[in-house]
Structures are given as C-alpha cells and as structure tokens.
C-alpha cells in the first residue's frame, strides 16, 4: 500500500517543505515588480532589490538608477516599491498631484513617535502625518503661523533683534576665526521659539547646547537605511545596543521638548502669553485632551517638528551662504557694492529691500540651489495612480530627484558652479526660475517657507553689509550624505567693514 508517512520521512520531507515555502513566497509574498511599474533594478519577493544594492551608497545608487533607467526609475525594499522621479517637469507633475501627497513611515518619525507617546507610536505630527488629521493639523498651523506674522513685516522685528545680537557676537571675535559650530542655530531657533513659546534662549544656554549636540549627532545617521524598512524594527532598536547612537539623540530632543512644555504649563500666566503653545493648550483644554489633533502626544510632536524642521534647515542655509560668499571674493565684492549703493552701511537691510537688491537676492538663491538641502524629497502614493504612462500602486514611495533638477543644464546657465547669474538676465535683473523649488511642491510644501525666506534674506544681507568674510584653515566636505545635504565645515574670519 502507498504510504505517505514513509515517503515524507527524513530529509526528503525537509526539502519538500522548503520548496513549498519557496513557491508560496514566490507566488504570494509582496515585493515583486508590479505590472507596468517603472523600469529599474530587479525586484524579488520580500527582499526587493537588496541583492543589487550592496556595496553602493544611497546617492550612488540613485545616480546610477537615473542614468540607466531614465526619469521614472524603480527599486524595491522589503516589499515596498520605490520610484525615483527625475526631470523638473515630471517632478512637478507627480508632486503637485493629490495622489502623491502621502509620507511613508520613516524611521526618525517612528522612533520619535514611540518615545514621545511612551511606546504607543501612532500617526503623529505634520512632517510624517497623512490623512485627515494631517490636513487639519496643517491648516491649524498655517493659519496660526500666519497670525504670528510669518512672511509679513510684523515678524521682522523678531528677526532683526536676533540679527543685531549675532552681528555683535561676530564683531566681538575681533578678527579671530569664528567658531562656526552652532553659530546660527540659536538665533534661528529664537525667532521660531518667540512664536511657539514667547521666549528665547540666551548665549551659552546649557540645556539648549546639549540638545543641539544630539541634533548634530543625528545628522550623521542614515535615516533611510534599508534596515529601517524591516517591520517592527523601531521596537527592536530600543533594545539593541548598536542602535543606541540613533535612539539616544532622538531621546534627548524628546526630553528637551517635554521639559519645555512642562515649564511652560507651570507658568501661572501661560494663558495670557501670545504664543502657538497657548493656542494649542487652549484647544486641548476645550476637548479635555481627547481629540485626534489636540492631545498631549500631538502637541509634543508639533513642538519637536518646529524645533527640528525649523532650525537645522535655516541654520544650514545660512552657514552655506557664509561659506560660498567667502569662497568667491568676486561675488562678495559685487554684493558689497550693491548693498553700499542701495542701502549704505548704516541702517540694516530689511525684507522690503529684496526687490532693489537683485544681485544679493540672486546670490542668496544661488546659495540655496548649490546647497540643495533636501536632495531627495520623500512622498508616497495615497492611492493607485498613473504617471508618465506607468501604473503606481498605493503605498509606493516617491523620491523627487532634486539633485538632478538643480544641476540640469537645460534649466541653469551655469549649473556646476556657484554663479548668481543663474538668477540674473543679461542686464543684471533678477529672473525667477520655475525650477527653483527649495521648499517643495504641492500639498506638502514647507509650512515655514515664508519665514525661512525672510530669515535667510535678512540674516545674510545684514552679515554681508557689515563684514567681509575670509576663509582660513582647512575645509571639510560633509561626510556621508543620504537624502539631506549638509554645509561644508570651515573656519572664517570676519573683518568689520568701516562706515562709509
Ligand atoms: C531654508 C529653510 C527651509 C527649507 C529649505 C525647507 C524645506 C522643506 C522641504 C523641501 C519640505 C518638504 C516638502 C515636501 O514634502 O514636499 C519641508 C517640509 C516642512 N517644513 Fe520646511 N524648510 C525650511 C524651513 C522651515 C521652517 C523655518 C519651518 C518651521 C516653521 C519648517 C517646517 C516644515 C514642516 C513642518 C514641514 C512638513 C510639511 C508637511 O509635511 O506637511 N521648515 N521643508
């Protein structure tokens, strides 16, 4: 008689089991290339393209993908399809569509949410949020930030106060090299914190300095490393000592944010302070903290994002501005000449001077183009969609290839150099370039854009009016680059420009 039991005994049954499992994985596991998906690296079930991504940096991989597969190129990581979108006209088409306005789960946000909500995680904050809660939170923040004068002349005195203090600090270096580390962070944060909490940090504030250290450590970590695509990794990483260097700095920033909120709430008169925090706490009180937006965890996440997204971005831009202008004495001289002719050296420049300072304006935009702070803007598909004839399933991650767009010779006169002429016509008039989108495109465009534009212009034009910068010593290019760019590390001396 035919005996199944006998047939399947021993090593044969093991092999059969493995083959069956393999077949099931091949047939049903997610991660294979979906039909009519953009071309790209081979995608295996579960593993995606991992076997083809070994020994190459993320930047190297993305450059290779664009070169080999064109403007819509794909790869896969642990069941998630990723599409690299290049060429400005296609980036605009994809990113301004409502279907691409999602944000995939990202490790920084997930870890932060875990730590801020005592392990409950969930969909917190604006930067990583999606869906109706994100829409409501974004509306609330945009409305109130506008009320605080973001982008209007009413917020300029706050910027001016920080600029004046910074100019004095630099002057007091008396021609000694300026300590660049964190030079701009406190000033930039103070403008924002003035609106968020109605308070500011003094020079040398120890708690802030410690938190900034954590912040800088975070910048060295690959936030899109493939390891972070593994489901459940956030929980695991809390217990893995090797990931301590990632969790600890986020933990320190979370602690700082919690303490800021607690200190604020302990003030007797917090309800009378004109600040975003008072508005938020008042809404929370109205709902007794039981509201998807106005609750303790969301508040912490919003504060975290104001701190992180608002400070480092603007501070890096200012640092790079000082570096690039010092590095190009011809540009520095023309900026000086324009500022002297239009404003003189007495009163500080203000945002209303923007139109009458075309060369300075073009120089500052060129700083942002060359820095290209967020080189690959990450979104994800909220629904099945079709772009450029390809079918993109819901959940697919998009990477906007801003690196490619900012150096496209069809869009820029001199894409590979630092050259303000990229924003000037032959008569020296400022010309808008539609490809210059440092604050993103579409529904997720930066909520701090108006503030950042104003800050970058007022800070940099004031610095250039008052000082001539020269570089000293060695320059260190930024280390590992992932989806963000960082400024060069350098030392500079500021020479005071005498009164005319
Ligand atoms: C030079 C300075 C800045 C640059 C270059 C910059 C750039 C960007 C970019 C490219 C995005 C992503 C847009 C997208 O996903 O499509 C973004 C988002 C964001 N930015 Fe900024 N940003 C700057 C300053 C600020 C400031 C000062 C704040 C604080 C008010 C801020 C808060 C945010 C927030 C909360 C988001 C997330 C928006 C969302 O997902 O709905 N940023 N920023």
Question: What do these coordinates show?
Answer:
The protein is of the alpha+beta class and 500 residues long. Helices cover 46% and strands 9% of the residues. It contains 17 helices and eight strands. It has helices at residues 4-7, 11-28, 58-69, 88-95, 107-116, 132-147, 156-171, 185-196, 206-219, 233-237, 244-265, 276-286, 296-327, 329-342, 358-371, 402-405, 449-466, and strands spanning 72-77, 80-85, 376-380, 385-387, 390-392, 397-401, 467-476, 489-496. A four-stranded mixed sheet has the order 1-2-6-3. It has a two-stranded antiparallel ribbon with strand order 4-5. The protein has a two-stranded antiparallel sheet with strand order 7-8. Strand 1 and strand 2 form a beta hairpin. The chain is globular. The termini are far apart. Bound molecules: protoporphyrin IX containing FE.
Mean pLDDT: 87
Q: Give a short account of the largest sheet.
A: 4 strands, mixed
Given as residue ranges, the uncertain stretches (5+ residues, pLDDT < 50) are none
Percent of residues in β-strands = 5-15%
């Amino acid at each position: 008689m035919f005996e199944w039991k006998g047939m399947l005994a021993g090593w044969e049954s093991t092999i059969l089991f493995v083959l069956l499992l393999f077949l099931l994985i091949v047939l049903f596991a997610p991660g294979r290339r979906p039909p009519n998906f953009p071309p790209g690296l081979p995608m295996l079930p579960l593993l995606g393209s991992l076997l083809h991504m070994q020994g190459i940096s993320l930047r190297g991989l993305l450059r290779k993908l664009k070169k080999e597969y064109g403007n819509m190129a794909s790869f896969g990581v642990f069941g998630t399809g990723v599409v690299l979108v290049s060429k400005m006209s296609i980036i605009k088409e994809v990113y301004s569509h409502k279907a691409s306005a999602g944000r995939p789960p990202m490790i920084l946000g997930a870890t932060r949410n875990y730590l801020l909500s005592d392990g409950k995680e969930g969909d917190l904050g604006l930067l990583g949020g999606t869906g109706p809660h994100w829409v409501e939170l974004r509306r609330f923040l945009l409305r109130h930030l506008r009320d605080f004068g973001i982008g209007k002349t009413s917020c300029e005195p706050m910027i001016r106060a920080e600029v004046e203090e910074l100019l004095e600090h630099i002057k007091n270096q008396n021609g000694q090299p300026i300590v660049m580390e964190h030079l701009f962070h406190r000033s930039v944060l103070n403008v924002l914190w003035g609106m968020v909490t109605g308070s500011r940090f003094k020079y040398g504030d120890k708690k802030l300095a410690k938190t900034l250290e954590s912040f800088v450590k975070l910048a060295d970590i690959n936030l899109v490393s493939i390891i972070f695509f593994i489901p459940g990794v956030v929980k695991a990483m809390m217990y893995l000592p090797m990931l301590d260097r990632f969790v600890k700095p986020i933990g320190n920033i979370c602690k700082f944010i919690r303490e800021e909120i607690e200190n604020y709430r302990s003030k007797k008169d917090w309800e009378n302070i004109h600040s975003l925090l008072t508005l938020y706490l008042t809404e929370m009180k109205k709902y007794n903290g039981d509201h998807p937006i106005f609750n303790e965890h969301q508040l912490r996440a919003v504060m975290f994002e104001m701190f992180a997204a608002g400070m480092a971005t603007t501070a890096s831009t200012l640092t790079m501005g000082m570096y690039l202008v010092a590095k190009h004495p011809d540009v520095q001289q023309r900026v000086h000449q324009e500022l002297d002719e239009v404003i003189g050296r007495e009163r500080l420049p203000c945002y209303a001077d923007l139109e009458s300072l075309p060369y300075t304006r073009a120089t500052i935009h060129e700083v942002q183009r060359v820095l290209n702070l967020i080189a690959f803007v990450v979104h994800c598909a909220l629904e099945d969609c079709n772009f450029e004839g390809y079918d993109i399933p819901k959940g697919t991650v998009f990477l906007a290839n801003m690196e490619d767009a900012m150096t496209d010779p069809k869009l820029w006169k001199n894409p590979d150099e630092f050259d303000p002429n990229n924003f000037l016509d032959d008569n020296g008039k400022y010309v808008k370039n539609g490809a210059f989108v440092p604050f993103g495109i579409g529904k997720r465009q930066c909520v701090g854009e108006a503030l950042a534009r104003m800050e970058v212009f007022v800070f940099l034009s004031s610095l250039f009016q008052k000082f001539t910068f020269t570089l000293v010593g060695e320059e260190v290019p930024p280390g590992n680059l992932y989806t963000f760019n960082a400024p060069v590390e350098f030392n500079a001396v500021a020479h005071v420009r005498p009164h005319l």
